[in-house]
């Protein structure tokens, strides 16, 4: 990241980070709609195996960035490299191969209501792979188990599931092709605190066991404080700051300060861990 981006300097990052593999690299990305410039020369890196929490005030462009990275929206300028592939320069075969290495959990799950859970999970397999039905069934049951859903959820329709089950079923679909990089758009929104904490724990477990890299757009302070390795804040049409929670606490910006040091944040941070009165420590419980 260039220093002009106001990112945390390399000195304050863990030393090993410099050697880590960049899985997603966004450079000088500009996206807009008519006169509405949403992202202006934005830069962002995500490293292999990390859970990156992406935050920002409502309407700053978090969804626009995610959708642009997923090629669902066009960019005006800039480059996006995922797993070493620049989609704009890639040929058809490279694009298809890249698409299979990405998993997406859209906000509210976005399951097809006319399909059962099993059929939803099998959609990516049908699109990209030519497998016998019996094998696709087997894989679907493995994915269900992976996300903590019972086998009998397979034949249910989305309308028969609770909000938490829909998120898990959508996650199972996102994992259908064993992706390297998973995009989660507000995965815990609409869940009660216990359901949200369980979902966070599931994401951390999947990252640990499958070696996933996770890009998580979230407003959930509990998620940021409990499972995210790094945080990036979107503001003023670019990444204002990226780094650890301590970097967020130290960053001099009114929105960042009120978000990470506000009343809501203070209720999540464990006060008995506070090292000094200006620098609250963070609970990882
Ligand atoms: N398809 C589109 N056409 C025109 N403008 C759009 C489109 N999608 C998003 N925008 C605009 O881009 C800006 C950023 O929207 P976006 O949905 O990315 O915000 P966000 O940070 O995800 O907000 P929230 O946290 O509320 O979900 C808004 O001004 C929005 O109106």
UniProtKB/TrEMBL annotation:
<dbReference type="GO" id="GO:0016887">
    <property type="term" value="F:ATP hydrolysis activity"/>
</dbReference>
<dbReference type="InterPro" id="IPR003593">
    <property type="entry name" value="AAA+_ATPase"/>
</dbReference>
<comment type="similarity">
    <text>Belongs to the ABC transporter superfamily.</text>
</comment>
<keyword id="KW-0813">Transport</keyword>
<dbReference type="InterPro" id="IPR027417">
    <property type="entry name" value="P-loop_NTPase"/>
</dbReference>
<keyword id="KW-0547">Nucleotide-binding</keyword>
<keyword id="KW-0067">ATP-binding</keyword>
<protein>
    <submittedName>
        <fullName>Phospholipid/cholesterol/gamma-HCH transport system ATP-binding protein</fullName>
    </submittedName>
</protein>
<dbReference type="InterPro" id="IPR003439">
    <property type="entry name" value="ABC_transporter-like_ATP-bd"/>
</dbReference>
<feature type="domain" description="ABC transporter">
    <location>
        <begin position="24"/>
        <end position="261"/>
    </location>
</feature>
<dbReference type="Pfam" id="PF00005">
    <property type="entry name" value="ABC_tran"/>
</dbReference>
<dbReference type="InterPro" id="IPR017871">
    <property type="entry name" value="ABC_transporter-like_CS"/>
</dbReference>
<dbReference type="GO" id="GO:0005524">
    <property type="term" value="F:ATP binding"/>
</dbReference>
